[in-house]
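Researcher: Let's try something more involved. This one mixes different molecule types, so please make sure each is placed in the same coordinate frame as the others.
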Amino acid sequence: MKNILVAEDETAIRDFVVINLERAGYNVTEAENGAVALKKYDEANGDFDIAVLDIMMPEMDGLTVCKELRKRNGGLGIIMLTAKTQEMDKVSGLMHGADDYVTKPFSPMELVARVDALYRRIAIAEMRSENNFKEEIKSGDFTLNLKHHSLKKNGKLIELTQVEFQIMEYFFSNPGTALDRSAILKYVWGEQYVGEEKIVDVNIRRLRMKVEDNPSSPKYIVTVWGLGYKWDTN
Amino acid sequence: MKNILVAEDETAIRDFVVINLERAGYNVTEAENGAVALKKYDEANGDFDIAVLDIMMPEMDGLTVCKELRKRNGGLGIIMLTAKTQEMDKVSGLMHGADDYVTKPFSPMELVARVDALYRRIAIAEMRSENNFKEEIKSGDFTLNLKHHSLKKNGKLIELTQVEFQIMEYFFSNPGTALDRSAILKYVWGEQYVGEEKIVDVNIRRLRMKVEDNPSSPKYIVTVWGLGYKWDTN
DNA sequence: GACTATTTTGATAAAATTTTAACAGACAGG
DNA sequence: CCTGTCTGTTAAAATTTTATCAAAATAGTC
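Model: All components are placed in one shared frame. Result:
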């Protein structure tokens, strides 16, 4: 898990990237050009979450590698490294396929932040796509129907709004796990949402009013003090 | 454990550094230049926690060594020694990779303090990252569930606050080990916390109330007189 | 046994976090 | 338009946690 493939021909930059990603907790595989990158990808049976590719490389340029990788795995996260803004303009039309790009020179913080952000997106997307296979998720007396967007408690239908439904989806995908507000916020409202984190609390309250036997002493949506909430299953 | 690699070409300074680190309880390996440092690192199979590197050295300069070491072990602690502030400015852009730096001339106290601080950071970071892989830690009748943020004693749930939970995490990561207040303080409250060390005692008490069969004669959280506490497993 | 250092304990005040309720804009359906 | 629902914002109330303090108890030492 957290596997990254880095393709960059300049040794200095590659080392820089590899070091900083490793320090951030990623498991990095490095390649000195596009052809090698593709080879290493196949050798590892595509067991990567993210690829960081330089655009300008000998043997095979980053855009080609990007296209090839996308063919193999549509869900792979891809970040391109571009030298100048000009270069970016030239190829921007070809940038589709990449999820994000970072222009050189970049700071360690910037790189890691982008990769982290992409990783979160990927992880959430993966969770969502897993739920696509399921029709419904059961948990105790509750049944969340993903297809009909409905929630039943002991067979009794509970109407949920869009936001409420998504929170429940997140809960049901991680039963018993303590989820912090920031994670809930990102799952439901998305990465770039601007606004109060308190919105989570307010919606939790609304959910409790609908879901709990006694909203004043929650049994299902339990608060984890100083952290967030969890869907309790006991 | 507590192994340090010191690379410095000037004999006088090297001796100074080595003597003081050894007095502080570290196990020091010394090298007279960067190339030797790297060789000794590999010979010891990378069994070091921290490397102290002079920037200006013959054969191979400190920054290069730093980069090489980082490639081998992303979690290694690295402290750079720089001659003047000016020199630091020049290379500050290349400082990535180092965790800290000390400018010459420096006092024994300063050096040891920096190394100690870094060592603690490294140790805590390592412990935390190990716990990331685990879902729960068992110890006797107790199960600390890191995912659910819960503690169970013989299957019975015990509610813990944030601070209490972290203390338990520290205990469970070091069962049977006598932990001094200062270490507990740093793990739970962080390096730069300002306040009474007694706060540890108070929270230990609250934990005992929740965890012990008879809080007046603790069986699990045992006090080690003149030192601190330990999680007893017998 | 007396003395000192250290730890335990309980009370209380302060700080942090969560819950609750009320409000107002946006939006969709009639 | 009008109306009702959904949503995010805000502020006050309630709750929980946390820190500090000082007295009591305990362990260690001479």
